[in-house]
Write a structure and sequence with these properties.
250 residues, mainly alpha, Recoverin, domain 1, Rhomboid-like fold, two-stranded antiparallel sheet, 12 helices, elongated, transmembrane helix, Peptidase_S54_rhomboid_dom, transmembrane
Length: 250
Amino acid sequence: QLDPENTGFIGVETFASLVHSHELPLDPAKLDMLVALAQGNDEGQVCYQELVDLISSKRSSSFKRAIANGQRALPRDVLLDETGLGFYKRFVRYVAYEILPCEMDRRWYFYQHRMCPPPVFMAAVTLTQIIVFLCYGARLNKWVLQTYHPEYMKSPLVYHPGHRARAWRFLTYMFMHVGLEQLGFNALLQLMIGVPLEMVHGILRISFLYLAGVLAGSLTVSITDMRAPLVGGSGGVYALCSAHLANVVM
């Protein structure tokens, strides 16, 4: 009835009166986003497909375009003004402000975030690194400068340019660490930077980013110092820091 020509669009005022008169059970946050989308197109109209996408929690290409165009006028307060949040939702809000540069993106992430799947990659890598370090520390009875122990250097995980034929070493060296200082520094950054990044961008992107940094580290050592062994996850940590730097700049 409201769209006799079957264009898929109706005026935003018509839609607002429809919501008010019929008391549609639409999430206020999603309604804000739909209005922002309408303000982002030339005619100021609400698109039916965008409404369907919002209801189904699908992030449409038109929504991304609305954000890119800078049309983010929201009738509600910013996300920081939300009150009565539990610990986990406050953490999600912190992640939104730490990783996403735009208030509209933050609001979208905050209301659409789900606990499943959890950010397991960075947690699993960090836990594995700690377990490997403890095992070698107990075995060698040495907790600092472990690379100076001859048995440590015989580990199948350590990377050395002379062992390039053993391809797994290009990555597995990230589980080995020189001592408590290196392990603690890497673990702290992986959890502080890696976990928020993984929560926003997902396990596939962050795992690829981290492993690419680890691989870049072993490849760099292969061409800069043919005699140097390589241990530690610093290459992956540098990749995470570089990715986070983009958020800081934006």
